[in-house]
Design a protein that fits this description.
This protein has 382 residues and is mainly α. Helix content is 58%, strand content 2%. The protein has one domain: Glycosyltransferase (Alpha/alpha barrel). The strands form 2 sheets. Strands 1-2 form a two-stranded antiparallel sheet. It has a two-stranded antiparallel ribbon with strand order 3-4. Helix 6 runs antiparallel to helix 7 (139-151), helix 12 (234-250) packs antiparallel against helix 13 and helix 14 packs antiparallel against helix 15 (316-330). The longest helix has 20 residues, at 2-21. It is globular, with a radius of gyration of 22 Å.
Length: 382
C-alpha cells in the first residue's frame, strides 16, 4: 500500500511539473532556442549594420535598384529605428553605439544622403535622430529630428492648392490619404513628443489619425490602399496597424482623440483575427484567400497585436495566441543569411487586383527586416 501511495505521489508530481512547463498557446514570454526574440533581434540588427545604404526596392522600368542611393530611404529608416529600439530594450550599449556610429558617419561624410524634408516618406527620417537623442541627450540629434517633425506642418512656398487646404484645416500639408501615411506622419510626431514632451506634436498626430480613420476605415475594420485603389493591401494596412499602436503607446488618455483612435484600433485588430490564415500568416490582399502569404504585413500586424496585449488593450488569450502563432510561423521565413523572404516589393497604388497579385516577392528588403525587429523588441518590452 505504501508503495502505491509513493507511485501516485510521483505521478502527480510529474503531471504537475509537465503542466507547469507546458507553454500556453498565448504565452509571449517563453520561446525555445532559435526562436527567441533576443536571438532573432540581434541577428537582424547585425545584418542591418553590415548592409550599406541602399535604394528602396521596386520594379520601375529604367531604374537601377543596385545603384547607390540618392538619399536615405524610409525602409532603411524603419530598420534603423527598430535596431535602436531593440538595443535599448536589451540594454545592449555596444549595439547602440554601432547604430549611432552609422549615423555619425552619415552626418560627417555622407551629408548628401540626408533626405529633403519635402515628403512624408522622407520626413520620417527624423525619427532616428530623435531616438538617438532620447538615449544620449545630444542636442544635435534633437535639432535635426525636430527639423523634420516641424516641417511636416510648415507649408512650403511652392505648395499646391490641395496642400494649402490641408494646412488651413491644421493637418499636415503632406497629407495624401494613403494608409501608409499613418506611420510616416504619426510615428515622427510621436517621437518628437517623446523627445520634448511638447503636446503640440502628439495632438497633431492624434488629430491626423482620427481624420484618416473617419475617411478611410471600412466597415469590416480594414482599409483600402487609397480611396481609388480599393484593395486591402497587406503592408499598407500594416502601416496603419503599427501607426495606431505606436501612437496609442504614447498618447495620453486625457487626449480628446484617445477613445476614437482606440475604437479604430480595436476594430482593425478584430478584422485581422478573422482573416489570419490557419498557420498564423496574413496575405498580400488580406481578405483574399487566393493570394500568397506575405511577411512584412504579417510582421506589422504581429507587432500591433503584441503591443496591444502588453498594454492591456487586447485580450491576452485571444490576441496573445494570434501573435504567438504569427511569430513562430513568420520566423520560418528567415533564410540562413538572416534575411526575411516573401516580402512584397515597393508598391504604388492601383485599382487593379492583378497589380497586387503580381508584385515581386523579394528577400531581405528593409520593408520586412524592419517590422521583424519591431516584433522582437515588442516581445521583450515589459
Amino acid at each position: 500500500m505504501k508503495g502505491k501511495i509513493i507511485v501516485i505521489i510521483y505521478l502527480l508530481m510529474v503531471f504537475f511539473v509537465n503542466g507547469q512547463n507546458k507553454t500556453k498557446e498565448y504565452d509571449l514570454k517563453h520561446w525555445s532556442k532559435g526562436k527567441t526574440p533576443e536571438e532573432i533581434g540581434i541577428r537582424i540588427s547585425e545584418k542591418f549594420l553590415a548592409t550599406p545604404h541602399t535604394r528602396a526596392s521596386g520594379t520601375t522600368p529604367g531604374v537601377d535598384y543596385t545603384a547607390p542611393p540618392k538619399y536615405i530611404n524610409y525602409p532603411e529608416v524603419c530598420t534603423w529605428l527598430g535596431g535602436l529600439w531593440f538595443a535599448r530594450v536589451t540594454k545592449n550599449d555596444d549595439l547602440f553605439r554601432q547604430l549611432e556610429y552609422r549615423f555619425i558617419i552619415l552626418l560627417k561624410e555622407k551629408k548628401d544622403l540626408l533626405p529633403k524634408p519635402d515628403h512624408l516618406d522622407n520626413n520620417v527620417f527624423g525619427s532616428v535622430p530623435l531616438e538617438l537623442f532620447l538615449k544620449t541627450k545630444n542636442n544635435k540629434y534633437l535639432d535635426l529630428g525636430l527639423l523634420y517633425a516641424d516641417s511636416q506642418w510648415k507649408l512650403p512656398e511652392d505648395s499646391n492648392p490641395k496642400q494649402k487646404e490641408w494646412a488651413r484645416q491644421d493637418f499636415s500639408w503632406q497629407t495624401r490619404l494613403w494608409i501608409d501615411d499613418m506611420f510616416m506622419i504619426t510615428a515622427l510626431q510621436s517621437q518628437a513628443y517623446r523627445a520634448t514632451l511638447d503636446t503640440k506634436y502628439i495632438n497633431r498626430a492624434a488629430k491626423e489619425m482620427v481624420m484618416y480613420l473617419d475617411e478611410l476605415q471600412l466597415e469590416n475594420g480594414l482599409f483600402y490602399h487609397t480611396p481609388i485603389a480599393q484593395y486591402s493591401w497587406g503592408r499598407g494596412n500594416g502601416w496603419m496597424a503599427v501607426g495606431m499602436a505606436e501612437l496609442l503607446r504614447v498618447l495620453p488618455k486625457s487626449n480628446p482623440n484617445w477613445a476614437r483612435i482606440m475604437t479604430g484600433y480595436h476594430k482593425m485588430m478584430a478584422a485581422l483575427l478573422k482573416y489570419q490564415a490557419e498557420d498564423g500568416m496574413w496575405r498580400q490582399i488580406i481578405d483574399d484567400p487566393a493570394l500568397w502569404k506575405e511577411t512584412s504585413s504579417t510582421a506589422m500586424f504581429t507587432y500591433a497585436m503584441i503591443v496591444g496585449v502588453k498594454n492591456g488593450w487586447l485580450d491576452k488569450k485571444q490576441y496573445g495566441a494570434s501573435a504567438r502563432k504569427a511569430w513562430l510561423e513568420l520566423i520560418t521565413y528567415i533564410n540562413e543569411d538572416y534575411l526575411l523572404t516573401e516580402i512584397c516589393s515597393g508598391t504604388r497604388a492601383r485599382n487593379d487586383r492583378e497589380h497586387y497579385v503580381n508584385r515581386p516577392r523579394i528577400v531581405g528588403d528593409f520593408h520586412g527586416q524592419a517590422p521583424l525587429l519591431w516584433c522582437a523588441t515588442a516581445l521583450l518590452r515589459k
